[in-house]
Specification:
The chain is mainly α. The protein is built from 6 helices and no strands. The protein is globular and about 45 Å long.
Amino acid sequence: MLMEIVYNALTFNVGWFLNLFTGNLLWLLMMYIGVHILKNGQRVLYNNLVIWLVVTGTMDLARISGLSFYVAEALMVVYLMRLSVIALLEGSPGGMKYFSLAWVLTFWVTLVIYNVFMR
């Protein structure tokens, strides 16, 4: 997905971007609201960009390398890991400033755990 976006940006394919935007309005709104709630309205666009880059990058990584992530077991592990890490960050003073980093790191740790030990 990320490579398709880069390709269409380099070829100035405006129609493709309009189709992508209008076809995913619900997902964009849900992601914006979710990040707004989790981050208390601070740096919402930046955090949405980080999450978007992770998702589209992993879709390309899975396509290129054959690693799998978006399956039930891996998603369960990442959600449980994120739940515990976010609870830990909320309980520590000043821990929420590392929220985006923790979000991304839990994904990569889960990717390794799932593809090495659970697959």
